[in-house]
Amino acid sequence: MQKPILYLTQFLTLFSVFQQGLSYFLTVDAHAEECFFDKVEVGSKLGLMYEISEGGFLDIDVKIIDPDGELIYEGLRESSGKYTFAATKKGAYTYCFSNQMSTMTPKVVLFSMEVTEPEKVDLEKDGQTGEEGEHKKLETMLRNLGSALTSVKHEQEYMNVRDRNHRAINESTNKRVVMWSFFESFVLLSMTIGQVYYLKRFFEVRRVV
């Protein structure tokens, strides 16, 4: 009976790690600021990853504020970034994305907020049996594995966003090159026809009746 309960506990542990590392898409309008927060305990590890997927020059202002209102991190006109830190205070840490520098273009942001809770110290560790100790080690390994898989998942998502942005830039550049080539061809053809017509008129002999 203990093994099914153990497997269920391990699954819930791994699932909870994935739940703490979800990614979100956010649209920040021009002259607007959107903020989110995480309530954590002292010693927790927090991480913020973000990537601008659409809008303007693909830049946005980012800042992180601690529970006392002090600024921890600030980035101006950034396209992507990753910031990890340890919580030194208990309470809500705020993440803000500001698009106040934009006059009319909204920005679409892909971001994720990761929280790794500190490991709890077991006061009865010396009284644990060998099997309980193995279960504890297995649970710790599952948490580490879940965190690593979540990081890989986020990296893949950000790589997909970057690939989409680069593909859009390449397609836009290719379209402009094609349009410019057509324009140059049209100008060259017009100049050729004009020169032929001018030379024909220049060498034309006019008869006076």
UniProtKB/TrEMBL annotation:
Pfam families: EMP24_GP25L. Residues 1-23 form the signal peptide. GO terms for cellular component: endomembrane system; membrane. It is found in: Endomembrane system; Membrane. SMART domains: EMP24_GP25L. It is a single-pass membrane protein; Single-pass type I membrane protein. Keywords: Developmental protein, Membrane, Signal, Transmembrane, Transmembrane helix. Belongs to the EMP24/GP25L family. This is GOLD domain-containing protein.
